[in-house]
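Closing statement on the calcium ion sub-project.
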Amino acid sequence: MPDKARILVVEDEVKIVDALRAYLGNAGFDVYSAFDGESGLALFNETNPDLIVLDLMLPKLSGQRLCMEIRRVSRVPIVMLTARSGEDDKISGFAIGADDYVTKPFSPRELRARIESILRRSMDGISPLFSSMSWNDGDLEMDVESHTLKKKGESVQVTPNEFRILSSLVRYPQKIFTREELINSALGSDFDGFERTIDSHIKNLRSKIEDDTANPTYILTVRGVGYKFGGSGKNS
Ligand code: CA
């Protein structure tokens, strides 16, 4: 795994931010923080965090709005913080795309346990945050639970490795993956092949999902670095 996991905390209560910075910092995370929704969004774009702890009630841009904004471009795990404990809030938190939910007051230890469990799930690159996703107005569809992929409505046969590579890429649409990161995330760090093995998987995947493999729209080559996902999507 690449170095320390980065956590972005967006919360307007200074005391909570201070406590989380200290506690999560000691637990080995890199912690970034913002005190309102707008600077939270700016910091998200700047830092490309591995997980976001997001307060629901925030000045300038609410936690709910911020969560929806982030979900338009990223599947980064989001843990919502809320002062309320009603069941309705819980449901709407998940409906707007949060992955977990912590009600105030909470102990930093509890939050840390949640964060670690979500990061484990998300970093294995396989387990879904959304079970079905589609891109470019339904041109490409993926169902993570049934491991199926469709191009223009037609089933596409992919190998398990190809499916895992694509899952890793779509999970972080903003992230540029190096070959090594893709191998770790999709094939596991005990994979003992050459980094260039990824290139041949990518070539095969492109021949299955791209209209024009010479000008791909889904799996983009970032010259000198690696690959990133280029579809614009919806999820459910
Ligand atoms: Ca608040």
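The two ends are 28 Å apart (CA to CA). With this model delivered, the sub-project is considered complete and its resources will be redirected to Aim 3.
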